[in-house]
Amino acid sequence: MRLNQHESPTASSISRWRTARGIVLGAIVLAGSMATSAAIMFRLADTDCAAAAQARHVERGYTYSGVGAVIQQRGADSVVVRHVLPNGPAFGVIREGATLISVDGHKPQSLEAWAMALRGPEGTSVKVEVAYPCTGHETVTLERQLIHIRR
Description:
- By secondary structure, this protein is α+β, with helices and mostly antiparallel strands.
- It folds into 2 domains: 9-46; 62-150, PDZ domain (Pdz3 Domain), CATH 2.30.42.10.
- It contains 3 helices and 7 strands.
- It has helices at residues 9-45, 49-59, 111-118, and strands spanning 61-66, 69-74, 78-84, 99-103, 125-132, 136-143, 145-150.
- The strands form 3 sheets. It has a 3-stranded antiparallel beta sheet, with helices on one face.
- A hairpin with a 3-residue loop joins β5 (125-132) and β6 (136-143).
């Protein structure tokens, strides 16, 4: 290494020391990252296969107990059935586009409250009053069941 005309031997030594320090610190950071990655991979590889399969299953879908109707807010105080899930309790009983009037004789005040009223323990019954454009009101009794929604 050639010394610059204006660079003293002490400055050159300090410069080489700084370069070496940067290389050593970089190696320490890289080694720490690799050790952390190895620990994570070891932990993942050491998990129970059944638990890992269940976690993947949960990520691919959603399960709840209810009537199998997807609802949405329409206007300030109206909730309608947007979609009826095939093979759910509401399938073939409630049609899409129905306006919800009451659940078990009560009119919930928010979309979340409607959803909670339609959900409940599997095997329990719920009375749902709906209105259809041009055809009037209808009250149906549905038995809640587990609904599996897959992504």
